[in-house]
Amino acid sequence: MEYIENLINYIKKNLANIEVPDHKLHQYCNVSESKLRKDFKNHTGMTLRHYLIEQLCEYVEKIMLKNRGISYLEVTYKLNNYNFSHRTLLNQFKNYQERKNHKKEYTYGANPNIILQDFSTFSEILIRLILFYELAKPQIKTTECFIKHDVANTAFQFNGILPIETSHLYEISIDISDWSLSFFHIGIKRRLDKKHLYVPNTLDVYLSYLYTLDKLLEKDVNFKLMDSIKHWKDYVESTTYVSFLMAHYEIKTKTDKKNNFEIDRNSLFIKSTDFLIEDIRLKLCSKAKRRLSELYGVPYATIKEYIIAVKKFDFNHMHRILDITDIYSKKDTLDLFFEITQYPYLDNLLIEDPEFICGNNIADLLKLKGYSKEKIINCLIEFRKLLQKMPDDESCEFDVIDWLMGL
Q1: pLDDT for res 114
Q2: How far, in Å, CA of 385 to CA of 341, rounded?
Q3: How far apart are the C-alpha atoms of 193 and 124, rounded to whole Å?
Q4: How far is CA 374 from the centre of its chain?
Q5: Which of 64, 52, 66 is nearest to 16 (CA)?
């Protein structure tokens, strides 16, 4: 339908000004709401609301692409035209990512769907180098690990022409939904800087830095950092030797070729340093699992088993798990089970901001209603059955508190 195609073009050009879900787009098309809903679904195969949410998620992803290290939660707070809760968009974005990536295999930061893959590639190689030479000690937190590399008066300078850098800060973060790692270069601190402010904004800078380090290290090691990148020579247009205060090389990449740098997992350097990354991953896994148990009083294995049952709509297994679990173990335990019943996956915010995820005090509400444990279990199962009948966009928006109040 021509008017639907015109509407789609209008949405793409004016997304930031279209309120979701109160979009009033039927007025733009000069048709009734019901006709627009019907025609849009018939023409595209999805509801208009679902399409708008998909466009917003794509918009969020693009912002994250341009702002390295920013989380999707930070982006959602900047969306003035989005009138659902930020938690709802958070889950809609998670669903959007899962739909784009049906078979997500675990790799150290090389997942083709990871945001800023190219920058992550270089960050990972540099982190491995720092760990391999023990140039810095990793500071392991709960879901993230920070590595501060002091570089003052050393050859480790991104800007070899004017070597005034004092330290580089890197981060490894773990996604508790699948225990995959992401790698970030947080910033560079220079003389007189109070923070790590500067970050290279072109891949040429990272390539030049790695190439220079290879030249400096070539007499001492039997590997090359550049060989950790698949087909890197195919992307290089020129290599220039620069010598001012110290030896430095500048690489220019081809402008007519799309750069898609990917780590060669079989390269000597990567295989030689896998154990260092795996050690950090295991430590982060252990800390995250322990923190989940501390917050919610339920072992990680139980939470994971319950999520699998929820995804499969295996109501009998859900009942068995809940029956042997102390659902009043902590103040947020019951909130957690309602959360993962509605959104069956683990989210880092369960650890980083439990109040944001589990701040509904459902346990107190159901105690006031006089619900027994068996009745609460049945309530969770009926809740999942109700969600099963809804489209994805509606199930994300469903208000569990209103539903419980109405029982």
Answers
A1: 33
A2: 10
A3: 25
A4: 36
A5: 52
For the chain, give the secondary structure using H, E and C.
Answer: CHHHHHHHHHHHHHHHHCCECCCCHHHHHCCCHHHHHHHHHHHHCCCHHHHHHHHHHHHHHHHHHHCCCCCHHHHHCCCCCECCCHHHHHHHHHHHHHHHCCCCCCCECCCCCCCCHHHHHHHHHHHHHHHHCCCCCCEECCCEEEEEEECCCCCCCCCCCCCCEEEEEEEEEEECCCCEEEEEEEEEEECCCCCCCECCCCHHHHHHHHHHHHHHHCCCCCCCHHHHECCHHHHEEEEEEEECCCEEEEEEECCCCCCCCCECCCCHHHHHHHHHHHHHHHHHHHHHHHHHHHHHCCCHHHHHHHHHHHHCCCHHHHHHHHHCCCCCCCCCHHHHHHHHHHCCCCCCHHHHCHHHHCCCCHHHHHHHCCCCHHHHHHHHHHHHHHHHCCCHHHHHHCCHHHHHHCC
pLDDT per residue as tens digits for the range 270-288: 999 999 999 999 999 999 9
203 near 253, Cβ under 8 Å?
A: yes
Contact 251, 207 (CB under 8 A): yes
| Tokens matching residue 356 | 């944001």
Q: pTM of the prediction? A: 0.77
| Phi and psi angles of residue 254, each rounded to the nearest 5 degrees, phi first | -70, 130
Rounded to whole angstroms, the Cα distance separating 239 from 334 reads 60
Quote the CA–CA distance of 330 and 335 in Å, as a whole number. 10
- Answer yes or no: is pLDDT of 156 > 80: yes
Q: Tens digits of per-residue pLDDT, 70-89?
A: 555 566 666 666 665 555 66
- In angstroms, the CA 331 to CA 106 distance is 33
Q: What is the mean pLDDT of residues 8-27?
A: 84
Contacts for 223 with CB less than 8 Å, ≥ 6 apart: 267, 268, 269, 272
What is the Cα–Cα distance from 346 to 305, expressed in whole angstroms?
A: 12
Please indicate whether residue 162 or residue 274 has the higher confidence score (pLDDT). 274
Which are the contacts of 89, defined by CB distance < 8 A and separation ≥ 6? 53, 56, 57, 60, 76, 79, 82
Tokens encoding 46:
């999805």
Sequence-distant (≥ 6) Cβ neighbours of residue 342 within 8 angstroms: 383, 387, 395, 398, 400
